[in-house]
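Anyone up for a design puzzle?
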């Protein structure tokens, strides 16, 4: 009986991986692909403005030791950057894919630090986040008289 059960499990696992491979499942080690909600520069700009204001709230929360507020802002940033990441994945722009993936990871690290009430770790992770903002802006943001555009 035990052997039959074991064999059934082995077979189901084999079948499942075959099905997943056929469905084009994401290979291990790669972030799951979600579709972006960003379809225009206006959409993108709106996301960046939300990112800007959450980043400001996050800074204030960390400085004043308000862990719950920090966690709320970093959770928002995580969601926003996942969307931004999906956008760049669709556009196939490698450095922006990396900057945005690092931004997601930094937001997650901030959430973890805030949950542990560790404001030092939150500050460190926020510095990592800030360097993603700067890196991506240097490479892909251009200031014009009519506001920021992409390059
Ligand atoms: C993966 C690339 C990328 C990352 C990471 C990124 N940005 Fe941006 N951001 C852009 C691009 C491209 C623009 C110019 C297009 C635009 O303004 O929509 C921009 C524009 C902006 C704007 C101006 C929005 C407007 O149109 O007025 C703000 C504010 C902003 N980003 C804040 C941030 C902050 C804060 C971070 C980090 C916490 C960040 N961004 C991280 C790519 C990025």
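Challenge accepted. My sequence:
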């Amino acid at each position: 009986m035990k052997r039959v059960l074991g064999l059934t499990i082995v077979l189901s696992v084999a079948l499942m991986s075959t099905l997943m491979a056929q469905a084009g499942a994401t290979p291990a080690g790669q972030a799951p692909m979600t579709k972006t909600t960003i379809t225009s520069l206006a959409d993108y700009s709106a996301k960046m403005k939300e990112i800007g204001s959450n980043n400001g709230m996050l800074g204030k929360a960390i400085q004043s030791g308000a862990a719950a507020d920090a966690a709320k802002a970093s959770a928002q940033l995580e969601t926003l950057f996942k969307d931004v990441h999906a956008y760049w994945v669709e556009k196939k722009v490698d450095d922006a894919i990396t900057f945005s993936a690092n931004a997601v990871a930094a937001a997650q690290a901030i959430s973890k630090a805030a949950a542990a009430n560790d404001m030092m770790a939150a500050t460190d992770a926020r510095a990592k986040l800030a360097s993603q903002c700067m890196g991506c802006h240097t490479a892909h943001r251009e200031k014009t008289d009519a506001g920021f555009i992409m390059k």
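A detail worth pointing out: Residues 41, 44-45, 48-49, 51-52, 55, 84, 88, 96, 99-100, 103, 129, 132-133, 136-137, 140-141, 147-150 surround heme C (CB under 6 Å).
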